[in-house]
Automatic annotation (TrEMBL), chains A, B:
PANTHER family xrefs: RECOMBINATION PROTEIN RECR
Protein name: Recombination protein RecR
Gene behind this protein: recR
Secretion signal, residue range per the UniProt entry: none
Lineage: superkingdom: Bacteria
Amino acid sequence: MSLPLLEQLIDAFRILPGVGQKTAQRMAYHVLEREREGAQKLAEVLAKAIERIGHCTQCRDFSETEVCAVCANSSRERAQLCVVESPADRLAIESATGFRGVYYVLQGRLSPLDGIGPRELGLDALGTRLQQGEVQELIIATSATVEGEATAHYLAQLARANNVRPSRLAQGLPLGGELEYVDRGTLSHAFGTRTEAT
Amino acid sequence: MSLPLLEQLIDAFRILPGVGQKTAQRMAYHVLEREREGAQKLAEVLAKAIERIGHCTQCRDFSETEVCAVCANSSRERAQLCVVESPADRLAIESATGFRGVYYVLQGRLSPLDGIGPRELGLDALGTRLQQGEVQELIIATSATVEGEATAHYLAQLARANNVRPSRLAQGLPLGGELEYVDRGTLSHAFGTRTEAT
Ligand SMILES: [Zn+2]
Ligand SMILES: [Zn+2]
């Protein structure tokens, strides 16, 4: 015998970030009481998204197509490649700055203890791309965390080894802060005054 | 042209209680990055729950069947009827106390300004049930909010009009507090020392 559907639903909500038993319960009751139509829509879109959203083969960002809209846009400047940790970080830079280059989304940061090395972040593919000579500046926009800094250091070395100039967002990011939570103004300023990476 | 699936997904998550744009975005990224299987399960269970979970015809609690498990349980004492505002409140009482009677779930509380009157809370049906003579005590477990108190007052009058003894959970509930957030001990004590309703 399987669990009652209501309990299954509460369990299922717990996969969402920051959602414990109590919040999952509230979500289940809320949709059943007041959001049946919206919940039906959520179920449909969620199933479709899981099925159809993969990764762009060029920048590793989420994409429904083999190459995402930014990478496929011929008016973007391919000489500037901005490396970010996550799709949310890419979105933050895209909406806060006037950047017209292209991105590379690591989908994580170096964390040897968790088994996340250069290969898991696609840095071998990035190295190959830098070798091809199209990229002139590698803008390193990893977060100001310990792992983000280690990742930035690795990226700067990778760039130099391929005769690409590495740069780093300017001081001004709050220390230890996640990039995606930085306010637009600070982020835009830090992006504009980026310095050579060390 | 429809919105990209990722944006549709972020929008869809916003139906959940307390979820704004930023949280919805994190949820979408999180499931795509790390919880594809769990998200698929959530989509399935959610669709099924919306389709199959209705209300018990006896107590108005959520139920997959016409009569819920508590109401269908012949060992529960039908002379004690406990009125709660929500399924979560019913669950809190059920797990914190040794109550062996049955419940009536209002799915709200009296709020004339929002158009929620006795009819919307099923109080006409409750009156009919009290008239039938099986219920001897109406345990009023609405919340200690202004609207909860007004609802309690209405319920006490309804009980007396039908020669049913109304009782109210004892003082001890934090004032203005939502019943479902009360700790087990306080709730159990208040339930055990309930007083006659005024
Ligand atoms: Zn791309
Ligand atoms: Zn029932």
